[in-house]
Amino acid sequence: MEYALLIFHDDGAELSPQEIDDHPRHRSWLAEVRRRGVFVGGQRLRPGHAARTVRSRAGDTLVTDGPFIEAREQVGGFVLLDCADLDEATELAALHPFAALGAIEVRPVWSR
User: Which InterPro entries does the UniProt record give (predicted)?
Assistant: First the structure.
């Protein structure tokens, strides 16, 4: 089953893509999920200030600059894993370096 790991971090503690890629714990984590054959994909997201939020209600569309929720922690990226179960996905999320820097939400993906 596929699981999305939504990576939350403090929006004020922005790391560059190069800093993340070069971080030894990140490289180790990526090697582990690839070794297990569960890594499907993932990507960093640009900071929340680069986002737009779109709402459509009763035929009207409201577009606002910025993330959906005004909070210190923002979604900074996502990873898609194909794990045996929620326990394995949770175990791998706990090993991810951002579990110590922010938070990771593990969410099952609807199958097609």
Answer: Dimeric_a/b-barrel, YCII
Closest C-alpha to 74, from 96, 39, 98, 93: 98
Q: Is the dihedral of CA 31, 33, 37, 42 positive or negative?
A: negative
Distance CA 13, CA 37 (A): 31
Q: How far apart are CA 64 and CA 41, in angstroms?
A: 29
Convert the pLDDT of each residue in 59-100 to its tens digit: 999 898 876 666 556 788 899 999 999 999 999 999 998 888
Sign of the C-alpha dihedral, residues 47, 34, 29, 39?
A: positive
Residue 18 has pLDDT above 80, yes or no: no
77 forms beta bridges with 7, 44
Question: What's at 99, amino acid-wise?
Answer: A
**pLDDT category, 46, cuts 50, 70, 90?**
confident
Structure tokens at 43: 């990507």
- Identify the CA nearest to 76 among candidates 29, 15, 21, 34: 15
pLDDT at 12 over 60: no
